[in-house]
Specification:
Layout lengths: L23 H21 L2 E2 H8 L3 H14 L4 E4 L2 E2 L26 E2 L2 E4 L1
Antiparallel strand pairs: 1-5, 2-5, 3-4
Helix pairs in contact: 1-3, 2-3
This protein binds zinc ion.
Length: 120
């Protein structure tokens, strides 16, 4: 996997504490645009935080950060499809974290798909 610290040209790292040269107004506007783009992607179909990160050239942590904001601003419209174990099909229901679980509690498999997010 590529180093997440490498150049990501589209979005400044506004929420990571690096706002050099960017006014707070501009920062908020860029962040808003990014979330609108993210919302648009999620309306088109379910995506995982990792897929969103790849599409928007964010680190997985940044993608999760923005997903949390979307979760708050689109309270009843953000649907979460639980993560699923690729080996035994175990579903991680009721899990609140946005990233993929590390391992399946049932069969100890480490290949876990999802969770997937979608906006209605
Ligand atoms: Zn399993």
């Amino acid at each position: 996997m590529a180093d997440p610290g490498e150049a990501r040209p589209l979005w400044p790292r506004l929420e990571a504490g690096c706002t050099a040269g960017v006014s707070s107004f501009t920062g908020a506007a860029v962040s808003q645009t990014l979330r609108q783009t993210m919302a648009q992607l999620l309306r088109e179909g379910p995506l995982t935080a990792r897929e969103l990160a790849e599409l928007l050239l964010l680190t997985p942590q940044e993608a999760e950060h923005h997903l949390r904001h979307l979760e708050r601003s689109h309270k009843h419209r953000l649907r979460v499809e639980p993560a699923r174990c690729r080996a035994c099909g175990y579903r991680f229901r009721g899990r609140r974290r946005l990233d993929a679980p590390g391992r399946c509690p049932r069969c100890k498999e480490q290949r876990i798909d999802g969770p997937w997010f979608r906006l209605e």
